[in-house]
Amino acid sequence: MLSCDDLVLGIDGGGTKTAAWIAWCRPDGEVTVVGRGEAGGSNPQAVGMSQALENLGLAIEAARGQVDANRDPLAAAVLGVAGSDRTEVRASLLRWAEERAVARQFRVEHDALPVLAAGSVELWGVALISGTGSFAFGRNTQGQTARAGGWGFLLGDEGSGYAIARAGLQAAFRASDGRGPPTRLLSDLLSRLQCAQPTDLVPHLYRFANEPASIAALAPWVFEAALAGDAVAEAIVATAGDELAAMVAAVAARLGFNKEPFPVAMAGGVLLGNPPLTEALHASLAARGLRVSTLTPVPQPVVGAVRLAAQLRAEGRLLDHSSADEAVPEP
To answer: How far is CA 15 from CA 2, 46, 220, in A?
Structure first.
C-alpha cells in the first residue's frame, strides 16, 4: 500500500471537463501517475460554484479509487481551475479543499499555470488556452506575470469554442434574413438540430442561454463548414485565430518578450482539436511579427498540475510568481 505522504494530486479544471491525477513521488525523485479521474466542468463561471465543487469531488474520488492507499490527506495538491484567479472564487475553492482535507498542502491556481508548467520546462513563456473559454497567461524569467482574456462568455472569451459557435449562429441567422452573405452554416445547423425552418432554432438554442459549454459544443459545426470551403465560416475561424494571437501579443508586450524569442504552450480542445484554428493562429502570430521560438501542444495540462504539486511537496512552495492582480503594469 502506498503512503499518502508520497502522493500528490494535480487537477486541471475547465469549463467542460475536470481531470484529476494522483502521482507517486518515488524515492529516486521520479513521479509516476497511479490514479486518474474525470468529471464534468469545474469552472465556476461556466457551471456555477455548486456544480464545480461537485465535479471536483467526483474527479478526485475517481482518481483515489484507483490508488491502493488509505484515506488520509495526500501530501500536496495543486488545483488548476479556470476562473480561480478571481478572489471570491479562489476563496471558495480553498475553503472547500480545506474542509474536504484534500491534502496537507494545497494551492489553487488558474488553469493556465499548469499549461505553462507542462509546456515549458523552464516555466516561462506564454500559455494560451482555447476551450469553452479562452485565456492567455505569461511568466518571464524574473517571475513577473501578465494575463489577457478570460473575461467570461458575456464579456469576452474571444477565440473560444463559445465565441466561434456564437459567431456561426449569428451568421446563420443573418443569412436567413438576407442581412448577411449566404452560408452553408444555416442549412447545416437546421440539419444538425433537426429543425425544419430557422424560427424553430430559436427556442431550441435559448434553452442553453446560460450554458456556455452547450453553445460551445456547436463549434465543430463551424469548423466543418470552414473545411468545406464556406467563406463565412472561414472568416469566423480566421477572426478567432487573430483574437487568440492578440492575447499572446498583449501578454508578450507586458513581459518584455519583444527582445527575444519566447515559447508558447497551447491547450484546450478547441485550439488543439481543430487544425484550421491552429493555422489561423500561426498566421496571425507571424503577421504580428511575434518571435515565437516554439509552439508546444499541451493535450494534458493536468501533467503540469502534477509537476507543480510535486514541487509543492518537495519545497513547501510553488515557483515564485506574481498573481494576476500583481502582474507587471501596462506599458
So the answer is: 32, 6, 17
